[in-house]
Amino acid sequence: HSVAVLGAPFSKGQKRRGVEHGPKAIRDAGLIERLSNLDYPVHDFGDLSFQHLEKDEPYMNVPFPRTVGRANKLLSGAVSNAVGAGHTTIMLGGDHSLAIGSVEGHARQCPDLCLIWVDAHADINTPLTSPSGNLHGQSVAFMLKELQNKMPELPGFSWMKPFLSAKDLVYIGLRDVDPGEYDILKDLGIQYFTMRDIDRLGIQRVMEVTFDHLLSRKQRPIHLSFDIDAMDPSLAPATGTPVNGGLTYREGIWITEEIHNTGLLSVMDLVEVNPALGASREAVASTASMAVDVIASSLGQTREGGPITQESQT
Ligand code: DIR
Ligand code: MN
Ligand code: MN
Ligand code: MN
User: Fold this and answer.
1) Which residues neighbour ligand 4 (ion) by CB within 5 Å?
2) Which of 8, 33, 243, 283 would be a feasible disulfide site paired with 237, CB 3.0-4.6 Å?
């Protein structure tokens, strides 16, 4: 098979500037070269260009609904095309509101997909529960069928309808969950692992239970939505909403190695790298390098190396 890389330089799902430069930062950290060391051809499709909408009044406290809705419609088509062409697809954000279009486009090709959401945050506020209004904290609520009657009709989103069941979703890395989000997680019986759960069970057991929950009945495509703020801020400081006590380097890589080893990864989002927010050039470089490492590991880079192949000799 082959890999498609798709850049999504978009930031209107939150209020801090700079996250639209995430795709460039991740490419500059050597992504394409690292992926070319793996087994399959890599197609870099470059960056999408998103339209700026002049008139986009807030909906209640939600800023830029039409801009975010339209960007996600465009991204959805691009992801759907890439998956339809047979590529394992890597979407580089941009902010996490982009997962709406990425997962929706993936689901159009693969209606039986499951979703692994690696994040400090649950991103499952509705426009009615959101303390910030920001759409990057609401992405999952747009996807879930069970929340349909809790979601107001937002301008910009009439192109899509909810497509995912709560049982087809697992969270890993949570440590900053809003009260309205906590109630939704509990009401819908969503499987989630907070950092406390990882401390208690260990990351190996967490991944076992994750796959048990999602894959025990049948093998199906995995969508991995990886918010770089899941990692500890010492490893990924250049991000909009860092939260202390995150994943260690080895926990992050274990998650992605195990997902690779299922052979079922179909689409991965890597979002919320914001090169404008690093305290130094080193802080930005380490964040982007962390992003490259989790992507390469998701696509089969191992810590034990591998045998001599034709590619490794040339
Ligand atoms: C917060 C922060 N729960 C919100 N969410 C973030 O705005 O809804 N998600 N930062 O990544
Ligand atoms: Mn987050
Ligand atoms: Mn997120
Ligand atoms: Mn492999």
Assistant:
1) 300
2) 283
